[in-house]
Amino acid sequence: KAGVTQTPRYLIKTRGQQVTLSCSPISGHRSVSWYQQTPGQGLQFLFEYFSETQRNKGNFPGRFSGRQFSNSRSEMNVSTLELGDSALYLCASSLWAGGVADTQYFGPGTRLTVL
Amino acid sequence: KQEVTQIPAALSVPEGENLVLNCSFTDSAIYNLQWFRQDPGKGLTSLLLIQSSQREQTSGRLNASLDKSSGRSTLYIAASQPGDSATYLCAAGPGGGGADGLTFGKGTHLIIQP
Q1: Beta strands in B52-102 (DSSP E)
Q2: Cβ <8 Å between A106 and B97
Q3: Neighboring chain A residues of B31 at a CB cutoff of 8 Å
C-alpha cells in the first residue's frame, strides 16, 4: 500500500507570494492533518480535515488555509508569504474521524523556503 | 494548554546499550500518546501508539510505557544499533475530541556509535 505522498517536495518563494501544497493520504484514510515544523517551534498543528470538512484548527493566522476533496486528497494554501513561513510542512493521514485518536502516518514533507 | 517535554535533548551511546528516552506532558487528559522517529530531512515514522487506557506497547526492540497520573511516558530501546540513530519525538493526543491535534515535544536526538 502506497504511503502518504506530498508534492512538491521543495519550494522556493518570495515574500508576498502565495503557495499551495498538496497531500495524498494512504488509500482508505479519510482524515488528513497538516503540521508545520521549524527549528525554533518544533512541530505545530495547523488543521485537520475529515470528509471534506475542517474539524480542528491550530493557532495560525488566517493566511493559512486548507481544503479536502472528495477523494480525501488535501491542499493547504499560504497567502502573502512571510520569511517566518519557511518550514517543513508535513501532512499526516489516519483511518477515521478524530484522526489524532488513531495512528498518524506522515508524508515526507514539503520544504518551503521564503526569500 | 498541553505542553510536552522530552529529556534529554540529545543522547550519544555505544552500540549494544539499552536506553530510555523520557517524555512528560502537563495535561493528563490525553486520548493517546504516540512515539515517532524522524530521520534527517524526512517525515515522521510512527513507532508506537499507546491508548489512554493502556500502560504499555511493544514492537520488536521497542517498548513504550504510559503513566497518565504522573504525566510521563518512556521509550525503551533494547540492544541499540547504529540504524536507530534518529530524532525521537513523542506526541500527546488531546482528550475530548482532538481540538488541537497532536502536541509534540521537541525531540531527543539519538546517536548510536558503532
Answers
A1: 56-59, 62-67, 72-77, 86-94
A2: no
A3: 100-101
Which residue type sits at B27?
Answer: D
pLDDT along chain A (115 residues), means of 10: 92 97 95 94 92 90 96 96 97 74 87 97
Extended beta strands in A1-115, E state: 5-7, 10-13, 19-24, 31-38, 42-50, 53-57, 64-68, 74-78, 87-94, 105-106, 110-114
Distance CA A4, CA A106 (A): 6
Hey, of B5, B44, B48, which one would you mutate to test binding to chain A, going by the most A CBs within 10 A of its CB?
B44
Mapped onto helix, strand or coil, the DSSP state of residue A52 is coil
C-alpha span between B95 and B63 (Å, rounded): 23
pLDDT above 70: residue B92: yes
